[in-house]
């Protein structure tokens, strides 16, 4: 019965098929992506189909195997980007290049089931929505492919996300999802504005659209990965934290300033604890302890910035050591200011090492941010 019906629909030339673009961001998914693409091509029975693979120059040859498929089938297109620039930016690029009326974004590692596309499209049409996302946290959802720790982490991140976004998105249960179906025309203005610093495209899209999109959800059965490993790492968690704070500051504070301040904050903790340890355990004088702890804090700031803030230009090996020397040299001006300010405060104003250090730190932060923005990144 069903087969005859779809056959009739295909034969009916008066109603042209709707155009559907499926965006598959990929990074080292050679083994996973081919079986997925083959399954997705079946959608051409119902849709005028386009598959857009956005590959960030995978080292495992993903783009080579995809290219072979492109040759065989014009419905498959590859965007190969050189210089890995991240998941959210790959999704944005795919969506901006898509030629469909409708678009799907899904993982290319097989963790999202192709059958979810149909459920989401039905929901989108029935309720005249702009966006339907897949949720791992609805009653009918299943999480087969995540460790308990990851699932708990996502669930916590969802709680924070909810309070940082418009009330119109309060009903959603999975702001971290990588599975989306969109009405391209109504979503494009918001897609265009998405800040691609983060990993979580959906969260960013919701944040920049400020409650103006009509949204819904379908339950997902999140599958285990067949080959390879997840690309989610500490730096992605960091990006998400920055995104949250960026939203909470009404998107006024630049992401870089937030990242800079957070790294600086960790340096404050390093400095305060080092001083306390040296003074209480080793009986060192405040002045000597401070010299050591300021250098320790500058070094830890340098290492964390290298791993997170500037990870696209991450230094390693000898260059890491050289970079540290340069960094200490550049930072030595405020370091001297920090030490002399704190010491003066301690000697002249009050013998309180906590406030003495805090004053030094604040002055250094303002100087460092202003100076590095202006001279290192050439921003005003
Ligand atoms: N082009 C591109 N560039 N693709 C990337 C990049 C990148 O830098 N990083 C990851 N991808 C692709 C992967 O190849 C995969 O197809 C998809 O993005 C998801 O990446 P995974 O590394 O498999 O993420 P995950 O399984 O840990 O995370 C999934 O669950 C999260 C919720 O916990 C994804 O669905 C996330 O989007 C989702 O937020
Ligand atoms: Mn995955």
Question: What do you see in this structure?
Answer:
This protein is α/β, with parallel strands linked by helices and 380 residues long. The chain has two domains: 13-243, Alpha-Beta Complex (Spore Coat Polysaccharide Biosynthesis Protein SpsA, Chain A); 255-375, no CATH class. It has helices at residues 2-11, 30-40, 62-72, 87-97, 115-126, 148-164, 184-193, 201-209, 234-248, 255-281, 286-309, 318-349, 353-376; strands at 19-26, 48-55, 76-80, 102-105, 131-135, 142-143, 180-183, 215-219, 221-222. The strands form two sheets. It has a seven-stranded mixed beta sheet with strand order 3-2-1-4-7-5-8. Strands 6-9 form a two-stranded parallel sheet. The longest helix has 32 residues, at 318-349. It is elongated. Bound molecules: guanosine-5'-diphosphate-alpha-D-mannose (GDD) and manganese (II) ion. Residues 25-27, 29, 54-56, 84, 86-87, 90, 107-109, 111, 154, 176-178, 200, 230-232 line the site of guanosine-5'-diphosphate-alpha-D-mannose.
């Amino acid at each position: 019965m069903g087969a005859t019906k779809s056959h009739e629909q295909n034969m009916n030339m008066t109603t042209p098929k709707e155009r559907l673009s499926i965006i598959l961001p990929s990074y080292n998914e050679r083994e996973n992506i081919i079986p997925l693409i083959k399954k997705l091509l079946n959608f051409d029975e119902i849709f005028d189909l386009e598959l857009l693979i956005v590959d960030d120059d995978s080292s495992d040859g993903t783009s080579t195997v995809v290219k072979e498929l492109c040759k065989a089938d014009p419905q498959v297109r590859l965007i190969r980007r050189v210089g890995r620039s991240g998941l959210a930016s790959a999704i944005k690029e795919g969506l901006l290049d898509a030629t469909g009326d409708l678009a799907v974004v899904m993982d290319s590692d097989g963790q999202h089931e192709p059958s979810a596309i149909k459920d989401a499209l039905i929901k989108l049409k029935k309720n005249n929505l702009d966006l339907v996302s897949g949720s791992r946290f609805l009653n009918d959802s299943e999480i087969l492919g995540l460790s308990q720790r990851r699932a708990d982490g996502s669930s916590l991140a969802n709680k924070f996300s909810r309070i940082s976004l418009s009330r119109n998105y309060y009903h959603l249960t999975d702001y971290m999802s990588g599975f989306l179906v969109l009405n391209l025309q109504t979503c494009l203005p918001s897609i265009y504005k998405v800040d691609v610093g983060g990993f979580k495209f959906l969260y960013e899209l919701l944040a920049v659209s400020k409650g103006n999109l009509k949204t819904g959800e379908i339950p997902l059965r999140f599958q285990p990965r067949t080959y390879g490993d997840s690309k989610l790492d500490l730096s992605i968690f960091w990006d998400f934290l920055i995104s949250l704070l960026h939203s909470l500051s009404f998107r006024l504070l630049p992401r870089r300033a937030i990242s800079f301040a957070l790294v600086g904050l960790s340096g404050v903790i390093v400095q305060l604890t080092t001083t306390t340890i040296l003074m209480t355990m080793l009986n060192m004088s405040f002045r000597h302890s401070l010299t050591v702890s300021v250098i320790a804090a500058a070094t830890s700031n340098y290492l964390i910035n290298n791993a997170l803030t500037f990870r696209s230009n991450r230094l390693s090996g000898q260059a890491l050591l050289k970079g540290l020397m340069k960094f200490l040299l550049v930072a030595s001006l405020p370091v001297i200011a920090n030490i002399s300010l704190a010491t003066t405060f301690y000697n002249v104003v009050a013998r309180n090492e906590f406030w003495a250090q805090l004053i030094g730190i604040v002055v250094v932060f303002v100087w460092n941010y202003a100076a590095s923005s202006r001279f290192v990144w050439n921003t005003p």
